[in-house]
Amino acid sequence: MMEDAIESVRATERHLRSIGESWYADLLSDAAEEMEWHGWISAKDDPPKEAGEYLAVTNYGRRRIQILTFVKDLEGLDPYTFVGLRKPGWVDYDSECGFGEWVVDYWMPKPPLPKKEGGQQ
Q: pLDDT for 14-43, tens place per residue?
């Protein structure tokens, strides 16, 4: 889980400080702060509990943040595209190509939409 990864980075940081490697410990401290601050969750270690739309980090040559849909059963979503894939997965839909599956590194819930003047979204 992400908390375990952060704690592992923090433990290594403490060890490096104890042996006088401050410059490297500072780098790890910055990395741990980034992990804590941004709230990204490892898709591999801790996928969403509920199906729905999420912000997702993908990496196909370069990292991108996009909105993808997490589903509990790919074949149940589209039995023609995902034949025999009775597993959870990340997808998007393209009107020309249909559903496409994505590999996601990290995810987080979508933030609420900003309110327009007058309190409406």
A: 888 888 878 777 777 766 666 665 678 888
Supply the pTM of this predicted model: 0.61
Cβ atoms of 46 and 114 within 8 Å: the answer is no
Report the chain's terminal Cα–Cα distance, integer Å.
34
Tokens 């023609």 correspond to: 80
Residue among 3, 58, 64 at smallest CA distance from 36: 3
Closest by Cα among 103, 77, 73, 76 to 87: 73
Q: Half-sphere exposure (CA, 13 Å, Cβ side) for 83? A: 1
Which parts of 1-121 fold into alpha helices (H)? 2-18, 22-38, 74-77
Which segments in the chain show pLDDT lower than 70? 1-6, 30-38, 80, 83, 118-121
